[in-house]
Specification:
By secondary structure, this protein is of the alpha+beta class. It has 2 domains: about 190 residues, D-Maltodextrin-Binding Protein, domain 2 (3-Layer(aba) Sandwich), CATH 3.40.190.10; about 90 residues, 3-Layer(aba) Sandwich (D-Maltodextrin-Binding Protein, domain 2). The protein has 11 helices and 10 strands. Strands 4, 5, 8, 9 and 10 form a 5-stranded antiparallel sheet that branches. Strands 1-3-2 form a 3-stranded mixed sheet. Strands 6-7 form a two-stranded parallel ribbon. Strand 2, helix 2 and strand 3 form a beta-alpha-beta unit. Helix 10 runs antiparallel to helix 11. It is globular and about 60 Å long.
């Protein structure tokens, strides 16, 4: 994989989402910053709005897969991009977004489900072994989160993270006291693209770096990184990736809900989809990537709409 092109794509995705949802925040009193994407299709069954964060490529990939399939069912599909999970859950609960196509509600986004869950319905789990990780380059002699204690100077006391409102960010904060790392390390947050930029620069120079990552995510294959062992389980257990709908979605769009409920992907199928959407085709050619993926994998599923 061409890492420079990968980082350009990731940065462009974040830049685009910032321009489209520039006022999105995740703090008290913040606005949702929801923006209208164009309706693509021309279906006669109504419009379904998909909300996702372009820099979180699990949702980016599955959003365009859903767009393809829902349009073939006869729906118009509107894409709405945001930069933080909080406004996305708010929009979903308020009905401004119909579907969040790759949510982590069991652990990573549990706090949002505690707040908004009564106004959200679970449409199905498409992947069942997602997890949050702390990672270092493969050339590092650090193998466990426990080994970070006393090694803070090597890493400038920084754990390079992603968006401030991400569940991964709050879980990392909870991990620090579990391993006695508070005070020695400070999570640094900005965006997924910024984290990947620092990771790329450090690995190219064979420098020490600690980052927050997750699986499934294409960067685990694109960069020479390894997950640190987590003997205390402080980063949480594995969880499922879900399609979430606004309350009443299945009643309003029963055939769409029935389709979404059937979607289940294994590692190879999901990895192929994400790689095609993010790396092989890239921004502006997501529909072509989905077509290529369906050509390769479509006959493996009963739910695919031709």
């Amino acid at each position: 994989m061409r890492k420079s092109r990968i980082l350009t794509i990731a940065a462009a995705g974040v830049a685009a989402s910032l321009s489209l949802a520039g006022c999105a925040t995740d703090g008290a009193g913040g606005t949702t910053g929801l923006t209208g994407g164009g309706s693509v299709g021309g279906g006669d069954k109504g419009t379904i709005t998909l909300g996702f964060l372009p820099s979180w490529t699990d949702g980016l990939s599955t959003a365009y897969l859903l767009q393809d399939q829902l349009e073939k069912l006869g729906y118009d599909v509107e894409m709405k991009t945001l930069t933080e999970a909080g406004p996305l859950y708010t929009g979903l609960a308020q009905g401004d977004v119909d579907v969040f196509p790759s949510a982590w509600p069991e652990i990573t986004h549990a706090e949002y489900m505690d707040t908004y869950g009564e106004d959200i319905e679970d449409l199905g789990t498409y992947y069942d072994d997602a997890k949050l990780t702390i990672a270092v380059p493969e050339y590092s002699d650090i193998d466990s989160i426990e080994d970070l204690a006393g090694a803070g100077a090597r890493f400038d006391g920084r754990i390079i993270g992603i968006e401030p409102g991400a569940g991964l960010t709050s879980q990392t904060q909870k991990m620090l006291p579990a391993y006695g790392l508070e005070g020695e390390y400070q999570p640094v947050t900005s965006s997924t693209a910024a984290m990947l930029t620092e990771l790329k620069a450090a690995t190219e120079k064979q420098e020490d770096i600690v980052v927050t990552l997750w699986r499934p995510f294409w960067a685990n294959e694109a960069f020479a990184v390894k997950d640190l062992e987590d003997p205390k389980g402080a980063m949480g257990e594995s969880e499922g990736l879900h399609f979430l709908g606004t309350a009443g979605f299945a009643d309003e769009f029963p055939d769409a809900a029935a389709l979404i409920e059937q979607i289940v992907l294994d590692d190879e199928q999901y990895g192929s989809l994400e790689d095609l959407v993010v790396n092989e085709y890239g921004e502006g050619r997501e529909a072509d990537a989905v077509d290529a993926w369906l050509e390769e994998h479509g006959d493996e599923f009963d739910w695919v709409v031709g």
